[in-house]
Amino acid sequence: MTRRERTDHRYYIEAVGNALKAQGIATGGVTGGMSREYKRRTAAIGFGGEVIWDYDDSHTTLSLYLEWDEERGWMMHDIHEPGAARGMAHGQYNLDLGLVPEPEKVVLHVQHMLRTGSPGRFDPVGRCHRSAAEHDPAFEAALAAYLLA
Question: How far apart (Å, rounded) are the C-alpha atoms in residues 80 and 58?
Fold first, then answer.
């Protein structure tokens, strides 16, 4: 792999999506691409209608999905309506699992969240572990492990 080549991250994301499905967690599909403005690899796994997340009575969750990017790793994203007068709001929670954790670790965190209502550490900005602009052979190798899996 040359310095400019980047491993296709979608195989890793699909492995996480398949691990969620294998544990009976309904997903609304897996998407992956490239962020236009920052040129970083991104992905999202939406949850199906069966997933109900009600961690308190302050709002109604309208959309819940896992979000991944190559700088921050996995985040839980909650789009909710805190009330008709206040409109839409977003909550972003860092799973603190690193950049390419094993799919089973992501599943365990999601199961814990659904069971307890604890999504992770609130992180509206999204702490970065690395820069997408810098080549990282170890990161590329971690993604490449899922190419033929």
Answer: 10
> Could you tell me which residues are beta bridge partners of residue 81?
60
**What digits encode the pLDDT tens for the residues 54-105?**
555 555 666 778 999 999 999 988 776 655 555 566 778 889 999 999 999 9
pTM over cut 0.85: no
Long-range contacts made by residues 21-29, C-beta under 8 angstroms, separation at least 24?
23/107, 23/111, 25/51, 25/107, 25/110, 25/111, 25/114, 26/50, 26/51, 28/65
Q: What sections of the chain are H helices per DSSP?
A: 10-22, 103-116, 137-144
